[in-house]
Design goal:
The chain is α+β, with helices and mostly antiparallel strands. The protein contains eleven helices and 23 strands.
Length: 517
């Protein structure tokens, strides 16, 4: 703009820009808002999971979104990186694992476990966070000025200090916390080792990790323990020194409790310690308790046979005994070692099931109705229900191989095959030839007896799930009137089972069953 009416001997010029009021906010601050126009400025990539999604999804239409991205040199670009939650968790996990190694660079490495020291110049603060190793609200923090002076022959301080919780109280304690909630304090437990499984690798969302598994028992209660990471190899080697001894007493400190399918899970942490047959009075007291309660070891190392002395909800049974005693087998958890001889193609290969309770539903018109949930829905889940002739050394019989068994054997779901046949314009009720990969497979399955819907049959046996070879070894000693089963080569089968977990179950490490030879 240049004014024309002026008395000045020089000329004024003014440039105007049309501006509109706008507001700036961080991505986190914008969460939950709906805006017509959004300008997203990213001078650097987002640093948290879902931040990019939140920023882009604030706008109500694609036309209202404008993005400006700077690269490392400050130049505009159209590429930025997103944060993947699994990758971020893995990085955090690796960082936590490295903390123990970084401690070795500090003078704490001169501290010897079990020795007594006079500690001078330290800080006392309120303890914060969860998973505290001792049940106190106060914590001691060392500084660069902290000194440690060894003190010998000071009998007022015990060499070891444990805060044991009885194995019978662990389940109630674990139920106090949600699946993603950590307790305030970790716990210490003591018991006798049973069914020790040496170190092995299993896949997790953090990559392949070492694990050692065994059961801890106090003559009345028994729970499974998992020792993870670098500690697994150390614990496995330590146990070899005591493997020949009867009733090896283990002390586990700073362990974490969890539950899965109402089963207790005991897992190690970075701060956990494992002691076998520790020279301490608590070990002698545990041995006395085992003797008073008439405990007998579950494993005899001399012949490597298993004898479970506690009542078990599982029973291993051969096929003929199962068929001859149908009435006594209802509502029992039974295990069978079987060979799939032939698939019966005349029987439907899948059934419709409720997406909530997974029970079979009835088709009413173009809808499905679940009697248990009392609800109707337009689309039902498709789950395997393959009829097969199976054999063992005692008998042969027709059973139904249910969804979990078939998925573990073939590595895909019924919905996947259903969709494939639909796209290829093959009638969905035609028996898929691909299922015949199960022919001749040797399996160990959980079986259930149900009343048959077909009037020509009185009952039907369903193989609900597969189980691992360790349960087979333990369970076979419990069965009565059973014949000896052939040794099953299950390595190939269990490798397939590991790679074909049902959707949603492979995410949680505790849900994965590592199959041992």
């Amino acid at each position: 703009m240049v004014p024309t009416d002026t008395n000045w001997p020089f000329e004024f010029k003014r440039t105007q820009f049309p501006l509109q009021i706008c507001f700036a906010m961080t991505v986190n601050k914008s969460q939950g808002q709906s805006l017509d126009t959004v300008g997203l400025y990213l001078p650097r990539p987002v640093f948290s999971h879902d931040q990019l999604y939140i920023a882009i999804s604030r706008v109500t239409s694609p036309e209202g979104l404008h993005i400006l991205i700077d690269d490392n040199n400050g130049k505009s670009t159209n590429i930025t990186s997103n944060v993947n939650l699994a990758k971020m968790e893995a990085l955090i996990f690796e960082h936590i694992l490295s903390l123990d190694k970084s401690r070795s660079d500090w003078k704490i490495k001169n501290i010897v476990e079990g020795a007594v020291y006079i500690i001078d110049t330290f800080m006392v603060r309120d303890a914060s966070g969860n998973l505290k190793p001792v049940s106190t609200d106060t914590s001691i923090r060392f500084t660069n000025a902290t000194t440690f002076q060894p003190c010998t022959d000071y009998v007022m301080i015990p060499k070891y200090k444990f805060e044991f919780m009885d194995l019978g109280d662990l389940m109630d304690e674990a139920r106090k916390y949600g699946p993603k909630e950590n307790p305030e304090f970790v716990i210490d437990i003591i018991g006798v080792v049973e069914d020790f499984i040496k170190v092995s690798k299993i896949p997790t969302k953090f990559g392949d990790r070492d694990i050692v598994r065994f059961k801890i028992c106090d003559a009345s209660n028994k729970h499974m323990v998992g020792i993870w990471g670098d500690m697994a190899k150390v614990v496995s080697d330590q146990y070899e020194e005591y493997n020949h001894e009867e009733n090896v007493i283990v002390i586990l400190t700073s362990v974490k409790l969890g539950t899965y399918n109402d089963t207790l899970q005991i897992s190690s942490l970075a701060s956990s310690k494992v002691y076998f047959n520790l020279d301490d009075e608590c070990v002698l007291e545990m041995r006395n308790r085992l003797e008073l309660e008439g405990y007998k070891p579950s494993r005899d190392d001399a012949d490597n046979s298993y004898v479970l002395t506690l009542a078990s909800p599982y029973e291993f049974i051969n096929l003929k005994t199962l068929v001859d005693n149908v009435a006594g087998s209802v509502e029992k958890k039974l295990y069978c070692g079987l060979t799939i001889a032939k698939l019966e193609e005349g029987h439907p290969w899948f059934s419709y099931s409720c997406s909530k309770c997974h029970l079979e539903v009835v088709e009413v018109g173009n809808r499905f109705k679940c009697g248990k949930c009392n609800r109707t829905f337009p689309v039902a889940e498709k789950r395997f229900s393959v009829k097969a002739v199976v054999v063992d050394q005692s008998f042969s019989w027709s059973i139904l191989l249910m969804d979990r068994v078939v998925k573990r054997l073939i590595g895909c779901s019924a919905s996947h095959i259903y969709l494939k046949q639909t796209k290829e314009e093959v009638a969905t009720k035609v028996f898929p030839a691909f299922l015949h990969v199960m022919d001749g497979k040797e399996i160990i399955v959980v079986v259930e007896v149900h009343a048959a819907k077909d009037v020509s049959e009185n009952f039907i046996i369903k193989a609900q799930d597969m189980y691992d070879s360790n349960m087979y070894a333990m369970s076979i000693s419990e069965s009565s009137n059973h014949v000896d089963f052939p040794t099953l080569d299950l390595s190939e089968l269990f490798d397939q089972a590991e790679s074909s977990k049902t959707p949603g179950s492979c995410k949680s490490v505790s849900k994965k069953i590592k199959m041992e030879k």
